[in-house]
What we know:
two-stranded antiparallel ribbon
Amino acid sequence: MPDQPTQELNGVIVTVDFVRHRNAMLVRADLGLLFTDFYLHVADHKLRYTPEQAALFKTALAAFTLHCASRPLNEHLAWTLNFQEPRLNVFLAGDNEDCTVTGRLFTENVREAAENVFFSDIVPRRGVEPRRSVVNFQGSDVFAAVAGYYARSEQQPVRFFDLGNDSYAMLVAQPDCDLAWFASVDVEGVRNPGAAETVGRIQSRNYGWHCGCTQQKILGAIAPAFRADPDGLFGDGETIRVECPRCAAGHTLTREAMEAYLTQTLKG
Length: 268
């Protein structure tokens, strides 16, 4: 049994089971609370997503959260799905040490390309250089895009199931998987696998929506640009509005705070 993280029960419980004799991993969760936190985040920061854009992000968040739960506890992960039609980027980030996920949509100034592109970055542990995988995909079906990534990068078949009422499942083939069963199992088979299969619990994790962006972190990110051209950054004003690149939360920075941050950094 893998070590379990110390967590407060303030998110969604994701369970990971092994379907014995079929050699498949089944990851399931009711993601309703996570979706609620995402929509509250959108409202709190007055983010302007259309219902279609928000629904696309919600599906990507479901796939990403289940994917994170299937990965080692010390990993940090990020996905970027570049869609050409509609033209937008879906960004997702996960911290498996704290079991948190976050993300955002980029709807402006999205690079035009010949095909949709899926970027996956994995940091095996803090301080290690990330590993990147890049695959192309067709269409706007998020689950199909992730399945293509799994087939080409992870080299594992994967299937996703919408179980209704904000519950989702991910079925991942393991070595010597019964691929005929894998391809034929239906929604009811993954909703209640114990009715027909022998299932063993591997672990459960509690994932919450959290970015961790603070004004200090944003000041640190903006500091190089301020050093190079403070007037170009602030113009004639004393404040600027900056979006977190991970979750799109807005942060108001003052010229005075920026100067104080640089002074403190130099002293340190």
